[in-house]
Amino acid sequence: MVGMDQLLGFGVAALVLIVIPGPSVVFVVGRAVSYGQRVALASVLGNTLGLFVVMTLVAVGLGALVAESIVVFTVIKLLGAAYLVWLGVQALRHRDALRVDTSTPRTPLTRAAAIRQGLVVGVSNPKGFLIFAALLPPFVDPDRSSVPVQMFVLGTLAVVLGLVCDTVWALAAGRARDWFASSPRRGRALGTVGGTSMIGLGVGMALTGHETR
Prior knowledge:
The chain is mainly alpha-helical. The protein has helices at about 5-20, 25-35, 35-60, 65-70, 70-95, 110-125, 125-135, 145-180, 185-205.
């Protein structure tokens, strides 16, 4: 069994890292300002699923390969970075669609597509490996129960905390988006900000060194 001291200790440590804006936060905010709350929340779901995949891999031991291999880490990082740049370019191309018509609301991006995109970003997020492969192991007590089980339980706690935090960001950014999108000029400007932020995030991820993960 996982003790309460483990849950509290790891929960606090993970929350400190989670609340610091990183790839997930920038991605969700970019989705919110570009497409609205519904797409942003779908992106949060996909991102959470991606983090859950990372956590599961770490729990069964495959995360150690990524944590120790520069090649594997770099490949995952560059693929995720390229994907973010592509999403940013698409957001810039469709920024004129941010004009809101209250009688016939438009959603340029489907929820299914948002979930798929969020999944890719979640899997390639370096912060996920930092939390699950570096921060989590010290909170595991081999004398209590199965180590993989403890890592899975503690990792799930971090995933849930990330889900809550990203949801708050999505809702807050979505409200701001609605106000900006009420004006065609504001909507276009906000679409530019959303797309540019994702491109910048992708470039930043690509330039981030292996030692900073």
